[in-house]
């Protein structure tokens, strides 16, 4: 099971180089499992026992399994994660010609760890909007091949490099795509039009706009002498999206189960399709009916917010509270912060801990050092918008927000197992 799940995650990461592709990958796997797409612009005829999913902006997805018990009887079992990861996004007018090289201007998306982006074989993926025969269309593209690189400056020219230096996001991050002949100019939109023809067989009149991210072409892999680790890009947080999907597809038909994978978490979730927007509330209100039914069902529900946690790095153990140091392959981590950066409380944490123990899943706890700042998740945001009881959990990882992150290869099994049990649990906290 471990090998199968890890290979499935590797395949999912490869197919999901952008939030748009991640959402498309999730939708494809849901449809194979018999889930039906609902259009927000049309009336819904959802029925008990039905399996549905909704997307917004092509980058956020909510999947719903309506059980035999009504939400008023048993509530909703929700698992939340996010589809976006820190990266380099192409600017609207990105063309740069410097010293005979063609480069693209980029903007840093989210809290990216920048140094690992240098000397990587980069490709480009995302969504392109274009005009064809007078009509507007959008398509996803993925160059797949390594087409760009951000070379480091040689140590001879930067003697302080190993003492650390501040990376200038404007001048030092533009990737190199090509070397130009004297007087040669390149048109980025023309390149995108050519890619649309290559991927989709489209002859477009004009490329109008785009949302494109650079990514590392090196595949995720299971590594270590005993294959203990999995390393790859976008583990934060596509690992949780994948685990939630596998658990949902394994759920029985008794309970009402929801998987929420939203965009823009890395920049605060405040968007039409983010956790701090109206998407989840609007979908649930349409499914649950009148105001009283909605409130009653929400108060019987529980959200598991699944987002990666910081494992104790052996070279930097002093960055952790001595009593709260999660280990890779030590199981899911309950994340606690009394200032509500995480939404866990004693009841929801107790429920999750009991669920883990009941199903033989190891469980850990994380509290940040009192003299360090604490990150956050979609947990507090969703809890405050819906009033739903929430537990924040995640798998321990190293190098969070790097271009390549590291997690335990046994932990995915642990997470899928406990989320599957959650989806099938007859009683909530």
How many β strands by DSSP? 20
- Proportion in β-strands: 25-35%
Write down the Rg. Answer: 22 Å
Strand adjacency order, main sheet: 1-2-3-13-4-14-18-16-17
- What is the residue-averaged pLDDT? 96
Fraction of residues in helix: 25-40%
CATH topology call of the largest domain: Aminopeptidase
Shape: globular
Tally of distinct domains: 2
- N-end to C-end Cα span: 29 Å
CATH architecture of the largest domain: 3-Layer(aba) Sandwich
- What is the name of the CATH superfamily of the largest domain? Zn peptidases
- The H/E string reads HHEEEHEEEEEEHEEEHEHHEEEHEHEEEH
Q: Structural class of the secondary elements?
A: alpha/beta
- Our count of helices gives 10
Low-confidence stretches: none
Main β-sheet description:
9 strands, mixed
**CATH class identity of the largest domain:** Alpha Beta
Cofactor: Zn(2+)
Binding site for Zn(2+): 82, 156, 401
EC number: 3.4.11.-
InterPro entries: M18_aminopeptidase_2, Peptidase_M18, Peptidase_M18_dom2
Task: Give the helix/strand layout.
Blueprint (H helix, E strand, L loop, with lengths): L1 H13 L4 H14 L3 E2 L13 E6 L3 E6 L5 H4 L1 E7 L4 E12 L2 E9 L12 E11 L2 E8 L33 E4 L8 H13 L5 E11 L4 E3 L5 E4 L2 H16 L5 E7 L16 H10 L2 H9 L2 E5 L2 E2 L22 E3 L10 H13 L5 E3 L11 H9 L2 E6 L1 E3 L6 E4 L2 H14 L5
Parallel strand pairs: 1-2, 4-13, 4-14, 14-18, 15-19, 16-17
Antiparallel strand pairs: 2-3, 3-13, 5-6, 5-10, 6-9, 7-8, 7-10, 11-12, 12-20, 16-18, 19-20
Helix pairs in contact: 5-10
